[in-house]
């Protein structure tokens, strides 16, 4: 496989775009460097690069593309809406329709608001929690990623950790002091933090199933303990479901796990691949938001008709019976297949999988928190990534990101992926 055109295009992009990419996670800095592959078109579970190479894709654009590329139902909805105008700056029925769909699927949402990104959604939930409680501090978990606003770029996973800057430059000391960071899956530390700062904590922000130091499940009772401890102290519990909404079932991780937050931030899948974010929750808290209340949040593009139409179409596809069971079955085939391949090579691997989302870590330990994820073998992952790419399988260029199956992956794709894994593992086992 040659990627000469990508190399040329990447060199050109470097001249004009910072780092050649519009989101740092897309660079190959953490996987040995080199030109990021330029994609030209996608269909179903595949995309093709500018040199004409075909890849089986598990990046799914970092999560939104759960129905595969250019899904006919979503494409049709986008085309139809584009012909009617892409932005009006007035309410539309599409916004109410999508809000109703979200509310029906996720019962903790009394009211919702649309934004343009997951970042905006999470940022606003924190503001609203502060407005509701009259408190300042936010408690979050080490290695989780909640977007790129200042308050959460402290001990941030995903891209910031991948590129070695979990505490971003440019975040002021006073902002960083408003954040308390504790390890995921550790009730004692959470309890201690509340004993010390409980009266100042406006909210606890948590990915109910982590997706940003790989996929990590909460241990039994952990989310329940968060609710109990936070509510006892009068703090708001905020779930960041930007990755997890509609990922494992038609609903959120909160439905999947049977736990209920006060506020939820959403994004990715609910826009069917177009820019979107949303947040919602208990009526008495959401009524803090302008124009009803004093907490301001706005957006010229918020609730834009194209994203709404695309999101509605995506959720319609996800209502197809058996669709999540199929992703789970294929995910299991991939997980089991990797372990079976590794019986030949005995590499230190650990796989965390929930339904169609999984992470392969190079580690001989189970991964339950950020420190453990950080300690996994980055160099080995970097080499694995490149071998897989060489064999036509595209993953995120970071050991902290998830692999996402889509509704379009097939048994044959999994078999082909496992052949690539066999090749990659055989190379890794040589040195
Ligand atoms: C859990 C989580 N929250 C928030 C965000 C930010 O979303 P966006 O990139 O749409 O701003 C992301 C991903 O980027 C995420 O994974
Ligand atoms: N893991 C991040 C979000 O889920 C990756 C998105 C990005 O940084 O571009």
TrEMBL record:
Keyword field: Cytoplasm, Isomerase, Porphyrin biosynthesis, Pyridoxal phosphate
Subcellular location: Cytoplasm
Protein name, entry field: Glutamate-1-semialdehyde 2,1-aminomutase
Main subcellular localisation: cytoplasm
Family stated for the protein in its record: Belongs to the class-III pyridoxal-phosphate-dependent aminotransferase family. HemL subfamily.
Catalytic activity: (S)-4-amino-5-oxopentanoate = 5-aminolevulinate
Enzyme class: isomerase
Subunit and interaction comment: Homodimer.
Organism of provenance: Sporolactobacillus nakayamae
Needed co-factor(s): pyridoxal 5'-phosphate
GO MF annotation terms: glutamate-1-semialdehyde 2,1-aminomutase activity; pyridoxal phosphate binding; transaminase activity
